[in-house]
Design brief:
two-stranded parallel sheet, 6 strands, Fumarase C, Chain B, domain 1, Fumarase C, Chain A, domain 2, Ribonucleotide Reductase Protein R1, domain 1, two-stranded antiparallel sheet
């Protein structure tokens, strides 16, 4: 395909250089946004009498035909074109003649690609957020199912205090809600129009950037033309949001991997989301969870790549900025697949409450409640803490639980212990008394579930 920029140079670059310079093999994915932006640009040019209404109608009809032909598969991308912008403009000119050459009036590829990226990423955020909502719904439904299932809560991967499995899952629901907020915030800052900034300095034509921005659904326009063509903060910010999202998915995946192991056996994953071993017939490997965990590093890498690319660039546009696309495209594809697979994995996951309860019984996770019992009787917490620790040491030495110690032995440590002790340190009581806002009690978990569902319905 002929170089539309040939002029001061002959445009006769080596094929290897052409291939190195070309971006159509990856930027073709925002052909819809490029055509949509070009239609709005043609409308603006006609409104401002920069081109005639007749020319604008021909350009818009031609672009609409190209849109339909690409959608139907009738028109294939020419991979010899330098980029998607050149391909669409050249195709338009082939179809409607020299009128097509008027489309590029009062714009540059610099502001055109900046526009396409904002339109494309805005659309992708709108696609990703419903997937996060589906994941949150799966988690919240599973939390509702197991809102009374007692399990150990951990710190340092050591059994700490009794909670419910539902309470544990709801923590991830709230993490993912924050991910939605981050992406919405990113979209808000992304939703300013660069079109009309041209190459870097604006244009001598009497354009109406606000009209064009409104046509494309932007909230405002970028006020400095240098900033308009050189800004990729929105790419960095979206990659940052996706990286945090992947971090949350990875943490959950790590727990799923642990929980599904024989050492825990707290859950069982569906056969649809596990694989077997080529030589060990007993294996059920949590490969989907492991892949989600592994792919988090991939998205992190894309974030670091764009930060590194941008850190030394002078204003305004530099060809280095072509590197803003493949990384974010890959991150979007990775996150999208992880959310879809992860949602199915959570929906089909089954908990094993009996195993969770047995683990909770063996961890002295009611030791804090034992200390609190003495505090409620008037003993200072630090004194109560020391007594409880001594009793735990006695239990470990004798291979028994706190529930197994008889009252007479308890009273050797403190006369404050009475018959009501055993009810106070039962795992059920320990869990259900954690009624502070956001706590592990079933009523609290129910409120969390209701809150999340309301928030999802509002968004």
């Amino acid at each position: 395909m002929a170089k539309l920029w040939a002029g001061v140079t002959a445009g006769n670059t080596e094929k290897l250089a052409d291939d190195f310079n070309s971006s159509i093999h990856f930027d073709c994915r925002f052909w819809k946004q490029d055509i949509t932006g070009s239609i709005a640009h043609a409308q603006m040019l006609a409104k401002q009498n920069i081109i005639t209404d007749d020319d604008a109608e021909k350009i818009i009809a031609g672009l609409s035909e190209i849109y339909d032909d690409i959608s139907s598969g009738k028109l294939q991308f020419d991979m010899s074109a330098e980029d998607i912008h050149m391909f669409i403009e050249a195709t338009l000119t082939e179809r409607i003649g020299d009128v097509g050459k008027k489309l590029h009036t009062a714009r540059s590829r610099n502001d055109q690609v900046a526009l396409d990226m904002r339109l494309y990423l805005r659309d992708e955020i709108d696609e990703i957020i419903p997937l996060i909502k589906d994941f949150i719904t799966a988690l919240t439904d599973k939390a509702d199912e197991y809102k009374t299932a007692i399990c150990p809560g951990y710190t340092h991967l050591q059994r700490a205090q009794p909670i419910t499995f539902g309470h544990h899952l709801m923590a991830y629901s709230y993490m993912l809600l924050r991910d939605i907020d981050r992406l919405n915030d990113t979209r808000k800052r992304m939703n300013t129009s660069p079109i009309g900034c041209c190459a870097l300095a604006g244009t001598t034509y009497d354009t109406d950037r606000f009209f064009e921005a409104e046509k494309l659904g932007f909230d405002s326009v970028i006020e400095n033309s240098l900033d308009g063509v050189s800004d990729r903060d929105f790419v960095v910010e979206m990659l940052s949001g996706l990286s945090i999202l992947m971090m949350h998915l990875s943490r959950l995946s790590e727990e799923i991997i642990l929980w599904s192991s024989w050492e825990f056996k707290f859950i069982e994953l569906s056969d649809a989301y596990t694989t077997g071993s080529s030589i060990m017939p007993q294996k059920r490997n949590p490969d989907m969870a492991e892949l989600i965990r592994g792919k988090s590093g991939r998205v992190y890498g894309e974030l670091m790549a764009i930060l590194t690319t941008l850190k030394g660039l002078p204003l305004a546009y530099n060809k280095d900025m072509q590197e803003d696309k493949e990384g974010i495209f890959d991150a979007i594809d990775t996150v999208t697949m992880c959310l879809k697979v992860g949602t199915g994995m959570i929906k089909t996951m089954k908990a094993k409450p009996e195993n969770m309860l047995n683990a909770a019984k063996r961890g002295f996770i009611n030791a804090t409640d034992l200390a609190d019992y003495l505090v409620k009787k008037g003993l200072p917490f630090r004194s109560a803490y020391k007594i409880s620790g001594s009793i735990v040491a006695y239990c470990i030495e004798n291979n028994i639980t706190l529930e197994d110690v008889d009252l007479a032995k308890y009273r050797e440590y403190s006369e404050l212990f009475e018959d009501d002790l055993y009810e106070e340190i039962s795992l059920e009581t320990c869990t259900q008394k954690r009624t502070s806002f956001g706590g592990a009690a079933t009523d609290s978990v129910i409120k969390q579930i209701e809150s999340v569902r309301k928030l999802l319905n509002k968004q």
